[in-house]
Amino acid sequence: MFVKLYPENPNPREVERIADVLRRDGVVICPTDGVYAFCCALTSQKAIDRIKTLSGRRSDELTIVCDGLSNISEYARVDNVQFRILKRNLPGPFTFIMQASGRIPGKALGRRRTFGVRVPANPIPVAVVRELGMPLVTASVKDPDEVVEYTTDPELIYERYGNAVDAVIDGGYGTLVPTTVVDIVSGQPEVLREGGGELV
Questions:
Q1: Phi, psi (5° rounding) for residue 116?
Q2: Pairing of strands 2-4, 94-99
Q3: Which tens digit of pLDDT belongs to each residue from 14-54?
Q4: Which of 36-40, 56-60, 153-157, 171-175 has the highest mean pLDDT?
Q5: CA 76 – CA 74 distance, rounded (Å)
Q6: In angstroms, rounded to a whole number, what is the distance separating the alpha carbons of residues 33 and 91?
């Protein structure tokens, strides 16, 4: 399935179709404010395993997309210092490493107690999370060894992965710039990877 969604105003009917796919253990490719990403529902271990196979990532390399700060606080332990950091920088191209709360399914985390969490500035994944009623587990669509055009063009992504995933969302051309990764577990921000966001 190839679904066109416009970031300025994602069509609610198409967003609902994507959410239905995700509820049935589906995997979709969705734009973010960085690179395109494989996505699935947080509670679907079957889909999480598929994403790990498709992306070549381990459990500790997957991130979780929420729709806002209140959604983050359901799944992560957030103190006042961390909340202020999140509020200043989200939504935006950041992945924040945080301590997981008891609401994160254990199988989604593997053996770890921390995870990367995002709230993209792109309205498409945010709309999908809201319709689905839970965060997305994600892994970037990229080749770690080279810069390749297909990872920014949704039609080329569909040509490559259309038979391997349940849907590809065309949200326009993506970028090759990853998120900035910031560890805030201790409350003192530590930038682990420079990317598209500048921490404030």
A1: -90, 135
A2: unpaired
A3: 999 999 999 999 999 999 987 899 999 999 999 999 999 99
A4: 36-40
A5: 6
A6: 9
